[in-house]
Amino acid sequence: MLEHFIFKLRGSNNLPMDEKALTQFPIALPLKEVKALTNGIINTTDLITAADGQKYIFQKINTNIFKNTEGMMKNIDIVTTHIREKAAKSGRDPERATLHFLPASNNTLLYKNENGAYRVSKYIANTVSFEGKATEKSLEMAGRSFGTFIKDLSDLDASLLSETLPNFHNTPMRIAHFLETVKSNPANRLDSAREDVDYLISLIDEGSKLSKIKLPLRVTHNDTKTSNVLVDKTTLEPLAVIDLDTVMPGLLCHDFADSIRYSANYVAEDEKEYYRAGLDIDMYKAYAKGFIPAVSSIITKEEIDTLVQGVITIVYEQAIRFLDDYLAGDVYYHTQYSEHNLVRTRTQIGLLRDMLKRRNEMEAIARDPSLYK
């Protein structure tokens, strides 16, 4: 199984992204080595080795995406402090159970200058992240990790955190924006996507169900890809959830749903043979097998009742977001060709159709009493 765990390093250079910014953190200079990491697509990240041999992760935050960097880092500080306390009480190593950011010269976890916003975290040694195609084993581990993340933070008041990405899972708002784009047809692409538009409009009631249900507001991760879990390089046991920029108040079912949407589809998100899209029930079951037992002691009846609805809603929401962007002329998502967002839409629609047909099967797995012992 080791071959599935890859820690990608891209090239090597002599200087970090911003040498002036780096001097604002308590790191022994000059640096011995700098390597650019490519397993993230939002922030710019270097793995640096300080003069004393200590390794750190040095990042320039993408402020086009994360506009409230102070609020984001405050969230991260609150969450990581809480997890370290929980880890220490449960016998886990608090320094390997979560990320640990260094204070800058301004006594915050963030340094900003004319070039951007920067932060530094300790490198967690002897770890890897899952970067290849998900397997049942890796998906179960990811489910356990993200479930444990929510459980560890279940006694933390979610109102203490700011919304890093406002209205991120506000499905009614996404629907309203989608309908406006359909009406205005700004890129004159409506004719090429009429069938897709009509199908998604026909499911507005389905896509709106979750928003009408009162559910506990929790501290959630909101980007539950398998690559956001660090595992021990030797034992392959999960250690820490990373990429905490999207941690904010949210619903438990969102963290259950997003990993399934991303990893339990038969095809990749932008597969041109989108007609092959559909739910891989074994992968769905694997994530449930990891996630549900981890949250079984804190999950409410209402949350159990909405696990599957959450998955369906997230897939629907992503479909309208891709199609909205296609109709608008590809203004948000990066595309490689003119129909890229339309292809992405159709892989989500294929997955959605299959989920709606197999809802009872999905419900039976999500309600399996053996997962709640």
Automatic annotation (TrEMBL):
Pfam families: APH (PF01636)
Gene3D superfamilies: 3.90.1200.10
Domain Aminoglycoside phosphotransferase: 35-279
InterPro entries according to UniProt: Aminoglycoside_PTrfase (IPR002575), Kinase-like_dom_sf (IPR011009), Pseudomonas-type_ThrB (IPR050249)
Keyword field: Transferase
One Gene Ontology molecular-function label: transferase activity
Protein name: Phosphotransferase
Lineage of the species this protein comes from: Bacteria, Pseudomonadati, Spirochaetota, Spirochaetia, Spirochaetales
